[in-house]
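Side project, low priority. Logging it here so it doesn't get lost.
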Amino acid sequence: MTKYSSELKVQIASDYLYGGNSYNGLSQKYNIAASIIRTWVKAAELNGLESLKVKRTKREYSVDFKLDVVSYYLKSDVGRNLVAAKFNISPSQVYSWTKKFQRGGPDALLPVKKGIPAKMPKKTEKAERNKQIGTLTDKQKYEAKILEKDARIKELELELIIAKKVAARYPRYPIDKRHR
């Protein structure tokens, strides 16, 4: 069960888009956070009011689609909510796929069989894992490597900015203790 009905989402997004109401006004009127309303409105702007309908069926996404979402999220400075609105998925899905990708690379985005796995000898388990790794195309592997490197560069740039701010605030405190 969803927290907000499809009708309520469509009504609020319509009030904003066609009624000229503000996010804060709608937030107070319906007692819903303005950030949630902003997400609904953005989804409606990008994909139409139909995108706000609650999806009752479980959707499965291809590895290419997941890589596109993660790539867009990591390369742009846009938040999860706007990426989710652009691709018509939930923000939690963007977060989940990004974390999986950062922890396990593109192989982590492959579909996983549900249920209790059958007991198998160790050699067979290794062979199965190697077979799964081989299911990614060369293009997907290449794109994933680029994404990993871009994410690492972004991470290092942030570390450098933080180090510079610390050095500016505390000039006597050395950043690296080896260089005293």
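Brief comment: The chain has a mean pLDDT of 79.
Revisit when time allows.
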